[in-house]
């Protein structure tokens, strides 16, 4: 029972490099989310998706892009990495939205990203 | 704008003592409130979800209360064990409307250490 799987688990990048983080869920969830977690700041929403082919901006979207070509996958891209993007990135999914149902969000184990 | 605060940021208790974790929020118009557990290097695991119409929710040794009017929730963990050592985060969900998707707003968490 995999749940939400994130790859890679760790990555070190140089400033200006690009990369894509992959999130896959096997629970047939409609909603998927990308968060970043920084010390003392809790989790902040970067982008989210309410279904296949849809994406929307969250609280801190600048410098990131996302795509949801397949229902089970949600990709987070960094086009030109900056040291300020050093963080732990979490993907989550839920059956329906959190604002109109009481379905919890299920989280992956995170990707630890360092930008030098 | 909804703000979620968890005080204290860290807490250490001897094994067997009851744990009391606090969460406060500024906007009482919430859809639900969730408590999560986060182990080091891992993602978040949903512990309890309290709907806005509920006053409390229980699961085993865990009990969470909700007082919307005062903007507070408390997570009680009875008879703490070393295995309860983790970071506990609360998150509130706003209502989904035509202008808002009902996002989840997280607190920064309380790091708990239960000493044998």
How does this structure look, described?
The complex is a heterodimer of chains A (116) and B (116). Chain A has strands at 4-7, 10-13, 19-25, 31-38, 42-49, 56-57, 64-67, 73-78, 87-94, 106-107, 111-115. By secondary structure, chain A is an all-beta fold. In chain A, a hairpin with a 5-residue loop joins strand 7 (64-67) and strand 8 (73-78). The relative contact order of chain A is 0.32. Chain B has strands at residues 4-5, 10-14, 19-25, 30-38, 44-51, 56-59, 62-67, 72-77, 86-94, 104-106, 110-115. The N and C termini of chain B lie far apart (41 Å). The chains are: A mainly beta (116), B mainly beta (116). Chains A and B meet through strand 5 and strand 10 of A and strand 4, strand 5 and strand 9 of B.
Key features of this structure:
heterodimer; A: mainly beta; 7-stranded mixed sheet; 4-stranded antiparallel sheet; B: 116 residues; mainly beta; 6-stranded mixed sheet; 5-stranded antiparallel sheet; globular
Shape annotation of chain B = globular
Beta content of chain A comes to over 45%
Count the DSSP helices of chain B.
Answer: 0
The radius of gyration of chain B is 14 Å
Low-pLDDT residue intervals, each spanning 5 or more residues of chain B: none
Helical segment count of chain A:
0
Shape call of chain A: globular
Distance between the termini of chain A: 36 Å
Q: Residue-averaged pLDDT of chain A, rounded?
A: 92
Helix content of chain A: under 10%
What is the β-strand count of chain B? 11
Name the structural class of chain B.
Answer: mainly beta
As a whole number of angstroms, the C-alpha radius of gyration of chain A is: 13 Å
Element-level helix/strand string of chain B: EEEEEEEEEEE
Protein chains sharing the most extensive interface: A-B, 26 and 30 residues
For the biggest sheet of chain A, the summary is: 7 strands, mixed
> What's the oligomerization state?
heterodimer
